Amino acid sequence: MKPSGADAKLSDQPRVEPHDGGILDTKAPYYAKRPVPGVVVAVLDARAKARRLELTVHPSRAILKGEVHELLATDEAEARRNAIVNRVSYLACVEITKSGMVLIHDRVVVKGRTLGHVIGFDETHAPNHANIVIRIAGEFRTGRELGLELEDEVSFEMEAGPVNIFD
Hints:
The chain contains no helices and eleven strands. With about 170 residues, it is mainly β. The chain has one domain. Strand 8 and strand 9 form a beta hairpin.
């Protein structure tokens, strides 16, 4: 029998994920956040029809200054966090220039143009980098086809007001 109460070890306790199961009293726990800026360090030019990205349950990620993450896009209408995404286009690798929080539904802006909105995070290549997956706004194209260039400024921006990060 496992000990309980004061005799229980932390490692004996199940981990509680506040983003999965109605633990929080709100669907919009982020009231405000600053944009997370970055720059393109590699422009990508590939697509996959059966990529099987496994988006995590987490609707947010702390992203640190100096980290490089891969930006992928999908046009799958049903794509969402905690799900599989198959159809992807490869956009860019982005170096983060100021630490911050990236949330699902964040608008991804490159050179003043909205490319899409974050729908989730895949950890296939962790701890090397995360895949940040967006739902593309417009045609399903690669980074090269979109005209992305090295050193382009990228920003992950919260929409106005509190955003429901659970739906």
